[in-house]
Amino acid sequence: MKDFSLTKCELPTRCNGCGIKSKDVFLLTEKGQKERTLCSVCLSVEHPDKMKLETQTGLLLKRKTNRKLYSLLFRAIANAEMSGNEEYREKAQQMKKILLSTSDVVLNETESDDGYDLLHLIKRHHQLIPMNFDEEFMRSVTDADSLPDVGDWNKIYKGMRGLK
């Protein structure tokens, strides 16, 4: 494992991984590497060994997938899960269930249901990206972001597309 240190940024900062500006960004200093800022979502991708094993899932995406897409997917699920709207929470649960089923496929490779096996496979598989569905982690991400309420996203999307 690489030697690294983390320092939480005091002001909202843009993540070097996904480009999203958040209050939940850390300065990562790795031995022999340039300093960079990473939000907690991108940090969990780069250092899955720091995640709570019982709440992580492997998301079958190519590691070269645009990090912003991954980060926005996680944030959308987290915002919907923490929403006061029951319909959004149900949709978040459905998305999590689909993503967790990818973990089952991966764990079947080892015939295990142990989170440590999943962590090992994530490290070995170059097409797996971990996603952490720990409630405390998801709440910290939604609290730190300045994204609009999930209920407004459809209006914003339609407005950007010129639709009414």
Number of strands: 7
| C-alpha Rg (nearest Å) | 16 Å
Could you say which structural class the secondary elements and strand pairing correspond to? alpha+beta
Sequence of strands across the biggest β-sheet: 1-4-5
**Low-pLDDT windows of residues:** none
Strand content: 15-25%
Mean pLDDT across the residues is 76
Q: Report the biggest beta sheet as strand number plus sense, adding barrel if it closes.
A: 3 strands, antiparallel
Counted by DSSP, the helix tally is: 6
Order of helices and strands: EEEEEHEHHHEHH
Whole-Å distance between the termini?
51 Å
The share of residues in helices is: 40-55%
Cα shape: globular
Description of the molecule:
The protein has helices at residues 40-46, 67-81, 86-108, 115-124, 135-144, 153-160, and strands at residues 4-8, 13-14, 21-22, 25-30, 36-39, 56-60, 128-132. Helix 2 crosses helix 3 and helix 2 crosses helix 5. The model has no long low-confidence stretch (mean pLDDT 76). The chain is globular. It is built from 6 helices and 7 strands, in the order E-E-E-E-E-H-E-H-H-H-E-H-H. The termini are far apart. It is an alpha+beta fold and 164 residues long. Strand 2 (13-14) and strand 3 (21-22) form a beta hairpin.
